[in-house]
Design brief:
It contains seven helices and no strands. It has one domain: AhpD-like (Up-down Bundle). The chain is globular, with a radius of gyration of 14 Å.
C-alpha cells in the first residue's frame, strides 16, 4: 500500500498557512463543486474520515446530488461525471496517491484539454491542502 506523499515542512505550518493555501485555491475559475470533488477524492485516498465528512457536507450544501457524491470513488468511465471533472479527479488521485512524477506529468498534460494551467495550479493547491490537513491530523494522533 502506498501512502500519500509527506508534504514539505513549509506546508505543515499552523492553520493560518493552510487557510492561505485554501483561499488561494478558491480564487479561480474552477467551479466550487469541482473544487470540493477533488478535495473529497483526495480525502478518500488519504482515508481521512473527518475530511470526507467535511467535503461531503460541502458538496451537498452546494446542491450536488447524493448519487454523484456516493459514486465519486468509481468516477472513471462513469457517465455521471464530465470530461472536465474526470480530468480534475485524475489529478487529485495522482497527487494524493503519490504517483511518480512522470505519471503525474502525463496526467496533467492530458488534463490540459479540459483545464487551464491556472485551474490546474489551483486544484493542485487545494489537493495539497487536504493532504497536509490529513497529515497534520494523523501526526497529532501518533
Amino acid at each position: 500500500m502506498t501512502h500519500p506523499p509527506v508534504p514539505p515542512r513549509s506546508l505543515s505550518h499552523p492553520k493560518r498557512q493552510r487557510k492561505k493555501i485554501q483561499s488561494s485555491a478558491e480564487e479561480t475559475s474552477v467551479e466550487p463543486s469541482l473544487l470540493e470533488m477533488t478535495r473529497l477524492r483526495a480525502a478518500q485516498i488519504c482515508h481521512s474520515q473527518p475530511g470526507m465528512n467535511t467535503h461531503v457536507k460541502a458538496l451537498i450544501a452546494q446542491g450536488e446530488s447524493s448519487k454523484r457524491v456516493q459514486q465519486l470513488e468509481v468516477w472513471r468511465g462513469n457517465p455521471l461525471y464530465s470530461d472536465r471533472e474526470k480530468a480534475a479527479l485524475a489529478i487529485s488521485e495522482a497527487i494524493a496517491s503519490g504517483l511518480p512524477k512522470t505519471i503525474c506529468a502525463k496526467i496533467v498534460h492530458k488534463a490540459r484539454t479540459h483545464l487551464t494551467n491556472p485551474e490546474i495550479i489551483h486544484l493542485t493547491l487545494a489537493i495539497l491542502a487536504v493532504i497536509d490537513w490529513n497529515y497534520s491530523l494523523t501526526k497529532e494522533h501518533h
